[in-house]
């Protein structure tokens, strides 16, 4: 889990994933993996020499911000990259990644004393938000190294909580998916299949790295590993969406309809290995599988989710047993997959 912790703490918004990529590449080099790359920044590691091509993908990017302008008074205005909700951004700390190092800022917000009563229940528009880095002017901000176009990520730490199976950090979406794919690659021993473990860029802005990497791999079977909604909270709906109840084998999301026979095959394997699973319907959003199953002539695909509370905010929460079970399921799949498996799934 030290690797998972490191992965979540690295900064890497869409189009700025180089630090995450460098770390994963080091891990793959230690494994003597055969490594391929696309031209956008994605990584592909290959294992196995014969049989159907199984493509796994875990996107490396996290949602974040880019500096769009600096006011004359030295406040930072920004463009969101990926799906943010303005309410979770208020009064939070941020890391601004400059050439001179990290500068910390806070999303400034009016004190309640200055907000008229009738406006206090309303969501604050994104355009009204700004980051205060504690300087007196634009000149001072520039002098400290601030420039438009720089990446901004949540500033926080990694926590193991009261029950140490529950972990809290930024960017579990999707460093936990990258971690699962990396661990599955390390542990798997494909005998009659070829494994392509892919670490994609720019998922949060439209599954872009999944598109280019799928054209390189030309998968026969495709599985994306991403975060799924964990909604077992007060006023939530814990049906199929609980932390600690197993990885989620998606039935449906906005970009992919889980391939029925691939899903069934994974569910059977999970049963055989006593791995709990959940089967959510995701009405909003999608995963890399959305582009993985559409390259060339197409491939049966499914999304595997790690249930996650508070996605797309500074702090997201996962359960470590779900992570371990997702890895076990993938390893079981890869190690037993052969040409007959592919024929049966496609039949
Ligand atoms: Zn994601």
Q: Judging by the overall fold, what is the CATH architecture of the largest domain?
A: 3-Layer(aba) Sandwich
Number of helical stretches of at least 4 residues: 9
CATH class of the largest domain: Alpha Beta
Structural class based on helices, strands and sheet pairing? alpha+beta
Order of helical and strand elements: HHEEEEEEEEHEEEHEHEEHHEEHH
| Number of separate strands | 16
Based on Cα principal axes, name the global outline.
Answer: globular
- Measured as a percent range, the helix fraction is 25-40%
Count of the domains = 2
Range of strand content: 15-25%
Cofactors, ions, other ligands = zinc ion
CATH topology of the largest domain: Aminopeptidase
CATH homologous superfamily grouping of the largest domain: Zn peptidases
Walkthrough of the structure:
By secondary structure, the chain is of the alpha+beta class. A 7-stranded mixed beta sheet has the order 1-2-12-3-13-15-14, sandwiched between helices. The protein has a 6-stranded antiparallel beta sheet with strand order 5-4-9-6-7-8, with no helix packed on it. A hairpin with a 5-residue loop joins strand 10 (159-160) and strand 11 (166-169). It contains 9 helices and 16 strands. The mean pLDDT is 95. 27% of the residues lie in helices and 24% in strands. The structure holds zinc ion. Zinc ion is lined by residues 59, 173-174, 203, 226-227.
